[in-house]
């Protein structure tokens, strides 16, 4: 999902729906597939975050010379920050393509949302490199942080990116070595 093609597939694939009343019971495999899929329950907090991000996207579309409005989502581990940002990103992507449908074939469609995973201790250059990888911007090890950032900024402006999000990958549970149990 951390490339444009992966994100587009995620954002445009309808989330699974629970069975409607009166439908026959689902098989265990179908139930497991439903519960393992990305399903977000719309809560007032999710709706507020979605509205806030859409407002920032509209405001940033009118900023030409100053810093664009930003949003930082913080909270404890497992609070749902990444889930909320994925939901908001999907909603913003769908709202953008609904209001501005992709052009005819042969012309690059706008890229309204960029989503990358960045390790907690990533350097600014590593962050810029992840954003470059998202759209396939070529980056070499000899490039400076400023060169990577300039290439990303230029490409993102041309692609029409309106919202970008970076999150830390989910924490991996500690590895338990069974040999120490003896």
Report on this model:
With 182 residues, this protein is mainly alpha-helical. Helices cover 45% and strands 5% of the residues. A two-stranded parallel ribbon has the order 1-2. The chain has helices spanning 4-12, 28-36, 44-60, 81-99, 124-135, 145-159; strands at 113-117, 163-167.
What is the structure about, briefly put?
By secondary structure, the chain is mostly helical.
Write the layout of secondary structure elements.
Blueprint: H1 4-12, H2 28-36, H3 44-60, H4 81-99, E1 113-117, H5 124-135, H6 145-159, E2 163-167
Parallel strand pairs: 1-2
* Number of DSSP strand runs: 2
The largest sheet, given as strand count, sense and whether it forms a barrel, is: 2 strands, parallel
Average pLDDT: 80
Secondary-structure element order, N to C: HHHHEHHE
Strand arrangement within the widest β-sheet reads 1-2
Radius of gyration: 19 Å
Structural class: mainly alpha
- Please state roughly what percent of the residues sit in beta strands, choosing from under 5%, 5-15%, 15-25%, 25-35%, 35-45% or over 45%: 5-15%
């Amino acid at each position: 999902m951390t490339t444009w093609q992966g994100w587009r597939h995620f954002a445009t694939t309808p989330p699974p729906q629970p069975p409607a009343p009166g439908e026959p019971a689902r098989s265990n495999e179908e139930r497991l597939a439903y519960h393992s899929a990305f399903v977000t329950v719309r809560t007032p907090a999710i709706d507020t975050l979605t509205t806030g991000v859409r407002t920032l996207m509209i405001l940033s579309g009118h900023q030409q010379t100053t810093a664009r409005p930003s949003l930082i989502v913080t909270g404890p581990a497992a609070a749902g920050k990444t889930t909320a940002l994925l939901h908001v990103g999907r909603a913003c992507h769908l709202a953008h393509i609904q209001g501005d449908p992709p052009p005819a074939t042969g012309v690059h469609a706008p890229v309204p949302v960029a989503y990358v995973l960045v390790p907690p201790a990533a350097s600014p250059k590593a962050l810029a490199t992840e954003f470059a990888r998202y759209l396939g911007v070529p980056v070499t090890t000899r490039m400076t942080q400023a060169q990577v950032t300039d290439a990303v900024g230029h490409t993102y402006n041309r692609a029409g990116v309106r919202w970008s999000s970076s999150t830390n990958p989910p924490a991996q549970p500690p590895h338990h070595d069974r040999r120490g149990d003896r």
